[in-house]
Amino acid sequence: MLRVFAVTASLSMTACIFYQPIVADEDEGADEAETEDSEDDTTGYHPCGPTQGVVDFVLDGDTVQLTTGERVRYILVDTPETSPDNNECWGEQATNFNWEMVAKQTVTLEYDAECKDIYGRLLAYVSVDGVEVNRALLENGHACVLHIPPNGSARLSEYLGLEAQAQEAGAGLWSGCGSAPC
Questions:
Q1: Could you tell me the domains of the chain?
Q2: The whole model's pTM is what?
Q3: Is 73 a catalytic residue?
């Protein structure tokens, strides 16, 4: 009986040591407001992932890998593929253009509604030195608009206009890849 009492007393004391009240903190509302405001802060983090990173490798015209290992797929653009079994018209030029803009550079990532695609890549608008790479690809005729909702809805009209201007000017892939290269 003495053993049962000793074990019970010991467990009760242990419970007191580890017990933490489940009561909302008075400043809970302030914490939530700080979290909402911090999504666009300059500390380098966003609920989707980093807001800055260094490009380690350019995979193709619209995808890069950061030094952290995360892959980033550009929102609202699609460049021709460059793989051994699928080397599309203008793919190499688009990849080279992307490489020249971002390789080994610190880039800024701006996220939209969805953070990742079905392949686990971060989805972002990517900028280097204040220049948005997604836009530059379209302006120079290295990409076509690819809208996968819900991302990109706010910029879709603008991007379609950039694509139309590149097409009218015969820039990049619009000069030698047929009438509908994308």
A1: 49-176 (2.40.50.90)
A2: 0.74
A3: yes
